[in-house]
What does this fold into?
Amino acid sequence: MVYDILYFNKHHTSYTIHHTPYTTHHTPHTPYIIHQDFKTMADKLFYFLSFLALLSAMMVVTAKNPIHSVLYLILTFFCLSGHYVLLNAQFVAVVNIIVYAGAIMVLFLFVIMFLNLKQDDEEAKTNLTKIAATIVGGTLGVILVAVFRKAQLGTYNPYSFNSQVGMVENLGEVLYNDYLLPFELASVLFLIAMVGAVMLAKREVGDRHF
Amino acid sequence: MNYLPSDYLPIIVQLVLALGFIVITMLVTHNIGPKRNSKLKDEPFECGIEAKGDARTPISIKYFLVAILFVLFDVEVIFMYPWAVNFKKLGLFGFGEMILFMGLLLAGFYYIIKKGVLEWEK
Amino acid sequence: MLSIILLSIFGIVVLFLGFQKSKNILLPATLLCIAIAFAANFVHWNDAPGLYFKEMLFENRLTMSFSAIVLLSAFLVVALTRGFADDEAAQPAEYYAIILFSLVGAIMMIGFDNLIMLFLGVEILSVSMYVLTGSDKRNLRSNEAALKYFLMGAFATGIMLFGIALLYGATGSFNLTDIRGYVGTNSFSISTLLYVGLLLVLIGMLFKVSAAPFHFWTPDVYDGAPTVFTAFMSTIVKTAGFAAIYRLLSGSFEGIYNFWWFTLAAITILTLVVGNITAVYQQSFKRMMAYSSISHAGYLLLSLTAMTAQTPDAIVFYSLAYSLATVSAFGVLMAVAREKSVQSHENAEDFEAFNGLGKRNPLLAFVLTVSMLSLAGIPLTAGFWGKFFIFGTIVERGNLIWMLIVAILMSAVGIYYYFKVIIATYMKDGETGALRVPPFYRIVLIVSTTLTLLFGLIPKLLS
It folds into this structure.
């Protein structure tokens, strides 16, 4: 399996993320894995969340009503947040819900309201485009699946692994020390977005006003 | 302090309960109550004012502008959580970093106000 | 490194200068800002190559040269924006501020040492371009171009981000040096994730420099965007994009050259053929320039595919020659089209706009001729030496002579459509009556033409 399964150790003080290399033959036999039942529970939860995420992502694409698409997208984001929690990246999980499922989806809804989608425009795609898209997408899918099956994932050291690496404190330490420059320059990106939005969307004299 | 994914178990329970309550109430109310349809009853209720036209009319771009500016500042605030948690550890240097970041964004905010984007009647 | 900080601050300063009553101060202020950044760029010229800000930014003579080209082209393009002051709907302060901010992104792309910096740089540059493309709000074609560019560009960025994630998954680091170390030490057991990650990042980057088959947005966007911003896009984005691709491939993935060279070679050939052949059939000058920019991306890719010790110099020289020629070509187009659009709005940007230009304004005609000759790669212009150096890297690589043959054939096709412009300028009769050009405008065109000729005569000047 190409995913990190969560394990508890004996004392409940720390837990480790264990990579189970698909290709190698060494089976996880470390003594840390005591709570087999929790492992299977995390396992099941992972499969359930993945299934739900994939299903709702498919529904985003196939739903006829754009509003439904957005709602399915929100469901997808919640599933992803579930994955982040399983990986013990709790800050990312919460931010994902606040920003993506909250704020950005509202923007999506706004855009849908702006567009007059009432009349059903039949999609102007020819069969050729559909076939070409299927071939391209299918090829990419096959390649990715093949790659992930063969991929050798990095190993970890259970003695030095810090399970708290995804917590806010650690994230902040890395962000404000090592990633200082990208962090400051992100504000330039925000500024461009702000100025651009104001420039493009500000009401000009003579525009409709209500 | 060690945080674990299992800490979120209460939240899952709460989520399941909340969703279950809504789903059950909706199913029950739809099924046990009597249903009588008439033209007047199916009309949208607008405090006695008759509904006119369609709800799907193009709306002013200003709503969108406010929404997009909200998202930008929302993301900005997200950056402050990890900073606030580490405030003491980062010391004066971290404070300076955040001041610079905030300064750049507040310059943008000042620009927005000066442009009159947030004034509705302009 | 210093120029990044300066440009971020200058951007805000120019933005707030826009609240001044008089808009006339904006252009000189912006030019001054870019000039200062240009000077600041060379502060570390004599120092050893160094990493700055916790290994986020790399600086050596090569990155400084790329930044200098970007800043020089930005300076020339901004100098051509005189017309904004007359246009009521224009918001010059915003344009200039966004241009200054976008240069920050371009310099980040040139000197990144961490994939996060690459991503952020690409985003800063792209978002600015989306906005500038759509800045002509009342023009339906500008709106359409902006939307197309945004949707496809966002998709390409997404693909690139996915690639970066896979690279991280394979190597456990965003750092170019660490990735290089991983490729070097594990040469027999490189994770398959790395290969796919590299390909996806390359696809994202090649989209930004409009290499075929990721070029479909280019003609529409170049055509729809206001001409000034088309000039900006086709010079700055391309130079920064190629600097970034070079930095990525040479900085981390030289060890697996055998893996990526063929992919890049196939894309190169496709880009050369598609760009040049399609350019022949264009009626609009702007669309022709769009396809010509695709074909020039092909020549630059040629040198990247060779990846020899001479490649960086060849790319630097070629980008410089290409940027100078492109700026002057668009400058002439703007001068002619503005005159024309006053009379009639139709076909202001077709080849016919240049008819009789040789008599109406000999200077403009000369500038246009030199720029076309340079783009076609005729001797005595910078473009010739650019192509010469590019082809030199291929010869040095040895086993890629077949690519050289395709490239030379395609340059011959290129000569055809560039000469079409020159013929329209001198041989065809068009409107009469002198075409007046503001003196400032003239200086910019003379400077870029002089530089083109100077580098054509003495290519050693740049070393």
In short: Residues 3 and 11 of chain B are 14 Å apart (CA to CA). The mean pLDDT of chain B is 86. Residues 5-115 of chain B form a domain with the Methane Monooxygenase Hydroxylase; Chain G, domain 1 fold (CATH 1.20.58.1610).
